[in-house]
Amino acid sequence: MPRRLRALAAWAADFEGYFPADLTLEDKYWNWKIPIHMSMVEGKQATPDLKRQCAQHLIDAAQHLRLARPEHALDCRVVAAICVPGMFSSEICIYADLEYHRGHIPASDSEYVETGRSLSLEWGLVLPQGMGERGLRYEVEGWDGQYYHEERWYFGEVD
């Protein structure tokens, strides 16, 4: 696993100084899924520390994008979205369209339930200055017709 964690750290570091130059309002958003093997964050091998490290690299990558954002893109919102327990679907998103952003991160009076917790405190994640946190609990229908609870944690510009 150390080799895979180093690769993930290098991936996050590659965002330093990078912001997509051709992002337009028509794009609505760009995203990058977490580039790891599923077993790192789901299943028997997925230890709490491994999940924490993967989440931290997503947060770090989102921060690099935030810092590299040019003035003409100040209205864009950058977030790291961490899904629990289905962490393999976690991603970094840049929202060029604010309404689309608000549709993905619903208002607190929506049908989604605020978790009332802090994943950063629970997992020992380091949030850079200016980065917010918001956790929502969803009920999702699985392929088997059963309903499951999932949490989606947003780190970054969650307004």
The gist of it:
The protein is 28% helix and 25% strand. The protein has 159 residues and is α+β, with helices and mostly antiparallel strands.
Describe the fold and architecture.
The mean pLDDT is 89. Helix 1 (2-13) packs parallel to helix 2 (48-68). The protein contains four helices and six strands. 28% of the residues lie in helices and 25% in strands. Strands 1-3-2-6-5-4 form a six-stranded antiparallel beta sheet. It is of the alpha+beta class and 159 residues long. The longest helix has 21 residues, at 48-68. It comes from Pseudomonas fluorescens. This is DUF3916 domain-containing protein.
Descriptive tags:
4 helices, alpha+beta, 159 residues, 25% strand
Reported for the largest beta sheet, the result is: 6 strands, antiparallel
Provide the succession of SSEs. HEHEEHEHEE
User: What proportion of the residues form beta strands (DSSP E)?
Assistant: 25-35%
Structural class: alpha+beta
Biggest sheet: strand arrangement? 1-3-2-6-5-4
What is the terminal-to-terminal distance?
Answer: 35 Å
Number of strands: 6
How many structurally independent domains? Answer: 1
Give the averaged pLDDT, no decimals.
89
Q: What's the helix count?
A: 4
How helix-rich are the residues, as a percent range?
A: 25-40%
Measured on Cα atoms, how large is the radius of gyration?
16 Å
Pfam families: DUF3916 (PF13079)
InterPro entries: DUF3916
Protein name: DUF3916 domain-containing protein
